[in-house]
Structure formats: structure tokens, C-alpha cells
Amino acid sequence: MNRFKHRLLLLSLKASTVEACFSVPMLNLTLPNFPFVIAFAVTSLGWGPIAVGLMAALPHLCNMAQPLMITALRRRLSLYHILVLTFIFSALPWGFVSLLPFLSRFARDTSFAAILTVATLANSLSAVSWSAAIAELVPPRLAGRFFGRRNLVFGFWTLLTVFVVSTLAESGKDDASLILFGGIFAAAGLARLIGLFFLTRMTFPLSVTQRSSVPPNFSEIKAPLSDIHFLRFVGFIGLWGFMLNLGQPFYTVFLVQILQRPLGNIGLLTGLAGIGGLLTVKGWGWLSDRFGSKPVLHVCAVLWSLAGLTAWAFAGERLFWHLAAGYLITGAATAGFQLCQFQLMLKLSPTNKAPYVAVFLALSSLMTALGPILGSVFLNLTPDRLGIFFGQTLRDYHVLILGSMVGCLASIRLLGRVQEMEAKEPEAVWDSMRRGSAINPAVILATTAQMILTPRGLFNLSSTSFRAVRRQVRILGDVGGEIVDGTSEILRAKLGRNDKEL
Fold it and tell me: In sequence order, what are the beta bridge partners of 387?
């Protein structure tokens, strides 16, 4: 393969990382099941638990609707054109949030619901097309390292965005908050469009940029339904999502409405989760490449459940800041869980990945969507105060959140039935973590404490991250050329050498 094609692939890998630095922070501000949008709905629009539950279920409902829609679009458009179209429709609606202060209460609620629906459906469609497109660029043997480093880069910008935006949002009051949130959401939509610009700088294979000469048939959706190993994985992710989302969407409601914590505290906790992911995502990628995605997924699920169970059991009027450690650990576990979930989904999918990704999102979301809906019903039917626990009021939120964590622990048994070729046992991952081979808990806690407790912490994080970005871009460029050559021995040597440098 000639030098020109080497250069195109190198630039595509870089552009993919830059695109994520604009798109992912925007998604963290605009997804209806994420803390920022929930905080806006609760504080500025006055939405209650039922509305929050339906809003948190919206992404999963859209995922259920997308298989037929994505197949219909693929009959007329290429994956690349679907990507461009869905990026635009996920960004533009957020500019209309700035008009909400001038509308009546009913029009304000219905307009925001419409914005959420259009943008979230577009995000669901773009997730399928992006997953199928990026799989054509990054081979499985490189997936852990590449996505780990890519996630590390955009994780810093997401963290910084959450801190800054939460601080700004806390200064808004009443109608002024609507205007302020409108500006924030409009800026988020603009960031998504900038991300689209860098997406267009990528060079994809013809299978992505051109519509197939044989249009996909709706019957291709049946193929994943006959793959027992794939369906077992879908079942685990669906049950996990259901149990987790029984309580997760209501964390912010509990903190804002019940504990009366300011939005700045919510932003800090969310930022700590981002720090946890930022400091560990490279390690998770290394572990998944060495031991397999399934065992790392198992470890992350256990960490997530136990940390959440411990943290929320004691959260209340008297004890609050211990949640910082809980958010840090669950943020680290979330980064590994999402990375390995994506990798394992691609590993279990054949060459034609689009219908598998579509079915994966639809079936897992079918179960996950029930979580926030049933959670909101539970909160609406049960008494607010249920007793006293360790000197604090035991509330219905405690029962809901702790029940969801126990359910998450129970669901991990299903993961054991999923098969991944050449995957090691979870004990190997635990042993590697104990030895600090890739993830050292002591270093993570010390680094986080320095960032939070010293005035120069964030500045030091910025300086370190900018240096890391420059190193990672150089590494990705080198790796890109080696992917094209197909020289796996050189690839492994290069990655091992760069790991030591970093």
C-alpha cells in the first residue's frame, strides 16, 4: 500500500480523536439520562420523578426504534451519509432551547420534550452508523489500545467542560437560569457540529462511503437473533442496564431536591467520575488486550456495584462528601465497562456489523428502558421517609438506589455464560490490578486528592493532559501506518515501547 494511503489512515485516526473531543462533551451535556439535563429539568422546568423517569428512558426507547429506521436509511444512503445527517439533527435542535424563556409553561415543557426526542433519536441512529464505520478502520487486535487512548484524550475535555458548565449553571436563578442553560445547550450543539467537521476529514473505506450495490434487506435483522452467544451478551447488558437504571437517573434528583445540594456539588461529583475514568481508561485498554474484554467487564461490574452500594447506603443530610470516593470509583469502573462492552460487542459481531449493532442497542434498550420508568413509579407510590438509618433519614430514594445496586451484582452471573475466544478468568485481572501492573489504586487516589485539594491541581492536570495529547497523537500516527502495513510484530513492539514511555 502506497505512502499516500498511509497518510490518509494516519489523518483519519487523528481526526477521530479530535472529533470525540468536541462530540463527547456535548453528549455529556445533552443526553436526557445524564446529570446535567436532569438537573436542568428539575431546577429550571420543575419536572418531577415521573417526568424524569420518562426522560431517562428516552435514549433506550429510541434505541428500540432504530433497527428498522437504520435499515431503511441504509437502503437509500451510505453509512457515511447517515452519520453526517444524524450529527446535524442531534446538534441543531439544541439551539432552540434559548427560546424557552419566552414560552408559556405548557409550551416550554412540550418544546423541550420535542427537542429531547429529535436529538436523542438522531444520537441513537448515529451510534449505530458510527460503530459500524469505525470498526472498518480499527482492527480488533488494536481496539483496546486505540480506544483506551482515544477515550483518555476526550475524557480530559469532558471533565473540564463539566466543571466549567456546572459552575456557570449554578449562578443562574429562575428565568435567568433558562437563558443561561439555553446558551449552554446552544454551545453544546455547536460543538457537535465542529465534531462533524473533523468527522468529514476522515477517510473511510468504500464500504462506508458508498451505498451497497445490494441494499440491505430487513431480514438481515434476523441474523443476530439466531446467534446464541451474541444474545447471551445482549441479555447481560440488558439486565444490567435495567437494574442500574432503576436508580441511576434519580441520583441527581435526590441530591438536588431532597438534600438541597447546589449544582456546583453535582458538577464536582460528576467531574470526579470523569477523573476516575481519565486516570484508568488506558489501563483498562491494556488489561482488555492482555486478558480479554469479558474478564475486565466482569471486574468493572463488580467494582461499580460494590462502590455504589457502599456510597449511597450512607448518603444523607449528615454524610455527603463520602460520595466523592464513590463517584471516583464508579467513574473508573464506568470507563472500563463502556470500553469493554463496545469491544466485546464488535468481537461477537461478524463482518456485517451494522445489523448486529442495531439489534444489540434495540434489545438491550428494551430492558433498560423499563428501569427508570419503574423507578419513577416506585418513588411516586412509596412514602418519602421510611425510618432512621445511622442517624439519618432513610428515604425511598435509598431503597430504590440500593436495590438497583444489589440487582446489578446479581446480574453479573449472566456474564459468565458469554463466550469470548482466548479470554482469561477475572481472577487474572484482579491479580494484575493488585500488583499495580496497569491500574494502581493508590496512585489514583493520591492524584485525585492533589487535583481536588490543591489550588494548582486543575492547572497541573491541564499541563499533564496537553503533554499526553501530543504524545498520543504521535503514537496514533505511527500505529496508523503500521496497521496499513499489516505487520503485527512491529505493531506489538511499537505499542510496548510507547507504553513504557508513557
Answer: 394
Please give the full DSSP string across 435-480, using - where no structure is assigned. TTSS--HHHHHHHHHHHHHSTTHHHHHHHHHHHHHHHHHHHHHHHH
3-class SS shares of the chain: helix, strand, coil, % to 5? 80, 0, 15
Residue type, 456: R
pLDDT greater at residue 221 or residue 206: 206
Cell digits of residue 117:
426526542
The vertex-228 CA angle with 214 and 67, nearest 5°, equals: 40
Q: Which CA distances in Å does 40 have to 22, 184, 353? A: 21, 11, 36
- Closest of 357, 414, 54, 56 to residue 238, by C-alpha: 414
Give dist(CA 129, CA 416) in Å, integer.
29
Quote the CA–CA distance of 202 and 149 in Å, as a whole number.
18
CA 288 to chain CA centroid, nearest Å: 18
pLDDT for 63 beyond 90? no
**pTM for the full predicted model:** 0.69
pLDDT higher than 90, residue 411: yes
Residue 314 identity (one-letter amino acid): F
pLDDT at residue 352, rounded to an integer: 67
Which of the four pLDDT bands, split at 50, 70 and 90, describes residue 157? confident
Instruction: Find out whether 9 and 204 touch, Cβ atoms under 8 Å.
Output: no
Domains and CATH numbers, the chain: 3-204+221-501 (1.20.1250.20)
Comparing CA positions, the residue from 41, 100, 62 lying closest to residue 376 is: 41
CA dist., res. 315 & res. 323, Å (int):
7
Per residue in 15-34, is it b (16+ CB within 10 Å) or e — as a string? bbbbbbbbbbbbbbbbbbbb
Count how many Cα atoms sit within 13 Å of the Cα of residue 150 in the half-sphere of its side chain.
24
Q: What is the pLDDT of residues 291-317, one digit of tens each?
A: 989 999 999 999 999 999 999 988 888
Q: Report the percentage of the chain scoring pLDDT > 70.
A: 80
Identify the pLDDT of residue 439. Answer: 67
CA distance 450 to 445: 9
Average pLDDT over residues 345-349: 82
Smallest CA-to-CA distance from 347 within 209, 497, 459, 233 is with 233
pLDDT for residue 212: 72
- Rounded to a whole number of angstroms, the CA Rg of the chain reads 22
How far, in Å, CA of 314 to CA of 395, rounded?
11
